[in-house]
Design a protein that fits this description.
The structure is a single chain. By secondary structure, the protein is of the alpha+beta class. 38% of the residues lie in helices and 32% in strands. It contains 6 helices and 24 strands. The strands form 5 sheets. A 6-stranded mixed β-sheet has the order 1-24-20-19-23-2, with no helix packed on it. A 6-stranded antiparallel barrel has the order 4-13-16-15-14-17. Strands 3-18-22-21 form a 4-stranded antiparallel β-sheet, with no helix packed on it. A hairpin with a 3-residue loop joins strand 21 and strand 22.
């Protein structure tokens, strides 16, 4: 390459520019990268190593810890006191006695005598039904009854006439026998003296024997005829008795078409309208006694073995407390509940009404001394197997064992001492933390 070519080349020009700039282009140092991928990887590894060591030291020196705000906690002391196991239930006031009105006979509503809510006396009419078929049945049965009565009277009359005829026949036969016996006695004297013939003597004797046999046959015939007629009369009398009872039933059914109040009380419901057809057994309403109330209480089936007659309950109303006692337990379980009837142990409160609800503390056991902690949200997480117990500025997880309970307290059997401060609020956000650090 000659000198002219060198001067015109790009390299030569750049070089000359560098020289013209005081030679700085030839002395510039290229900076090296500080955070190379290799160094980043080594740093992350070192941090992980330190974290693992810290975690190991943490777990070996007291378990996982969690910082919580103390003001958000509910801390309750473990105390001793009288404990009574009871459950809170809701009962409904009902009359001491309720009698339902069911139609004993079907029919059409012809007349309604009283309105719903009326106070009734026992036997007072409520409504009138009409049933034409029942009335026709009564008429037919009455006709059959009177016809059978006529047959009975005829049979008795025939029996009496037969008896009278027999007496008349026996009277005639006895008369003939008496007459022939006298004549036969005279003939025997005359026959022995030869004053009468053999034929005359035998004729009287044969007639006497005939009359005697005729009397025997008449007695036997009358006896058989009397037995037959007596059986006939007895059958007719039985038929008359049955028909009379049937008539009484039909008449009673007709009387049942007038629906009456079975007891004195209030007609709390009446489900009938004039002209409506009512079927046999249909519920028409109910009558409640007004002289007292009972409380019907549904109870969870879990407590069925522990609920018995005689157990007490209490409720508050208008700042007063009233006592109840279980007097009837219904063992049938429906929908996970069974029912009990509770009655007031003293005078019932004034102003209570049918259908009013009461919140009742139903006692399941007697009073006893026990170590107690209040109920709280902690139970939903721990199931009562452990709690956080406050120790200074932290709360430590501790296993416990609970026993009985009521709506206010748990009975503590193991794991706590009197005065221990227990966190009873919810543990839902604490996870598996072994220690809670309490912060102000």
């Amino acid at each position: 390459m000659d000198e002219t070519q060198i001067k015109n080349s790009p390299i030569s020009n750049n070089h000359q520019s560098a020289i013209a700039g005081g030679g700085q282009g030839m002395d510039r140092v290229i900076a090296k990268k500080t955070w190379t991928p290799r160094r980043i990887a080594m740093g992350v590894g070192a941090l992980l190593f330190v974290a693992l060591i810290g975690y190991g030291l943490w777990t070996t020196t007291g378990g996982t810890k969690l910082r919580v705000q103390e003001e958000r906690l509910t801390i309750s002391p473990a105390t001793t006191g009288e404990f009574q196991e009871f459950i809170s239930v809701i009962g409904t006031l009902e009359p001491v006695r309720t009698v339902f009105l069911d139609a004993a006979e079907g029919g059409r509503v012809e007349q309604i005598f009283v309105e719903e809510g009326a106070v009734m006396e026992a036997g007072e009419p409520i409504l009138q039904l009409i049933n034409n078929n029942l009335q026709l049945d009564l008429l037919n049965r009455e006709a059959q009854f009177y016809e059978t009565m006529n047959y009975l009277r005829e049979a008795r009359l025939a029996m009496e006439q037969n008896t009278l005829n027999l007496r008349q026949q026996l009277l005639d036969i006895n008369y003939q026998i008496t007459r022939l016996e006298r004549q036969h006695a005279r003939n025997e004297e005359l026959f022995t003296k030869g004053l009468i013939s053999d034929e005359e003597y035998e004729q009287v004797k044969d007639e006497l024997e005939y009359q005697a046999r005729s009397r025997e046959l008449t007695l036997v015939s009358h006896k058989q005829d009397s037995l037959m007629r007596r059986v006939q009369v007895e059958q007719l009398e039985a038929s008359v008795t049955r028909m009379q009872r049937n008539l009484e039933v039909v008449r009673a059914n007709l009387e049942n078409l007038i629906v009456k109040a079975p007891i004195a009380g209030q007609l709390t419901s009446l489900n009938a309208e004039i002209g409506e057809s009512i079927s046999n057994g249909q519920r028409l309403g109910q009558v409640d006694r007004l002289d007292g109330f009972k409380v019907n209480v549904p109870v969870d089936e879990h407590y069925l073995p522990r609920v018995n007659m005689g157990q007490d309950g209490r409720f508050s109303l208008s700042d007063e407390e009233f006592g109840l006692e279980i007097q009837k337990v219904y063992p049938e379980v429906q929908g996970g509940l069974f029912e009990v009837d509770m009655f007031f142990t003293e005078e019932s409160p004034e102003g209570i009404r049918r259908g009013q609800t009461l919140r009742i503390r139903l006692e399941l056991g007697d009073l006893s001394e026990a170590l107690l902690i209040p109920k709280g949200g902690f139970f939903n997480t721990t199931g009562g197997n452990w709690v956080y117990v406050v120790e200074g500025d932290q709360a430590v997880r501790r296993p416990i064992r609970l026993g009985r309970q009521n709506p206010q307290f748990f009975e503590v059997l193991e794991g706590l001492d009197v005065g221990d401060q227990v966190i009873t609020s919810s543990y839902d956000t604490y996870g598996d933390a072994e220690i809670l650090i309490l912060q102000d």
